Amino acid sequence: MTNLVKYNAIFVETFEVSEEILPTYKYQDTPSWDSVGHMSMIAALEEAFDIMLDTEDIIDFSSWEKGKEILNKYDVEVA
Q1: Distance, CA of 34 to CA of 1 (rounded, Å)
Q2: Given this structure, which CATH class describes domain 3-73?
Q3: Fewest beta carbons within 10 Å, which of 24, 33, 44, 66?
């Protein structure tokens, strides 16, 4: 399983959205991406990629696209 497949699966499962909308998906685009959903997604990402995100990165994680940039800082390439 590639990092992109894992990354997308976390979004689809956490927020119950279709994979097709992910490239433009942003924080609070759907009711499920609220503060609780955000922290659930962060926990799932940390577990899937065996990383610990800094608080600043958790706050800055505002879209599917931005998340790919943030994960890259932790040597997790999502392409």
Answers
A1: 28
A2: mainly alpha
A3: 24
